[in-house]
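Re: your question about Segregation and condensation protein B

S., sorry for the slow reply, the queue was backed up all week. Below is exactly what I fed in.
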Amino acid sequence: MDTADLRAVLEALLFTAPGPVRIEQLALAIEVEPRMVAKALDELREEYRRARRGFVLAELADGYQLRSRPEHAEYIRRLQVSRPARISRAALETLAIIAYRQPATRADIEYLRGVDSGGVIKSLLDKRLVRIAGKKDMPGRPLLYGTSREFLEFFGLRSLEDLPSLKEFTELTAESETLLLDFEAESSEPQTEP
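Result:
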């Protein structure tokens, strides 16, 4: 298979894939060496960058996925009829605790939040943003929670190392605090259908 055909097949596979696809999966489907797939993906990424297309080839959660450019988000929101996925402040707090302290027990989470978090944890499990990572070796054997692959996909991360450091959170500037307040106000407004 020549390079142009390989790139065309990769585009078709990535376009139709429901989520990120690993290089090994792509190589197996096309029946070529993984190094050839990796090279072709690098070429596609560079081509998309130069051509300023409406999408990019993103590497996240141990795979590759075609995604719309972030600067086009407002236009996409206008077109979409369904409401985008939202996460409550309580769920976001719980998710942050799990992401930074994993594996974490429900007691750990509730100690840090100061409130019962059972319902929030169940909601995050239902959304598949967290997973049960095992049981803690102590009396009662409480469940341990960790983030999932869907968590990485949802937030556009390749791995947990891409999370901002806790120090970065404490260094919010006045401008970013204003943006955060604006975002919270916008997300709390009732949504109306056009």
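The mean pLDDT is 83. Strands lie at 55-60, 63-68, 104-105, 130-135, 143-147.

Happy to talk it through on Thursday.
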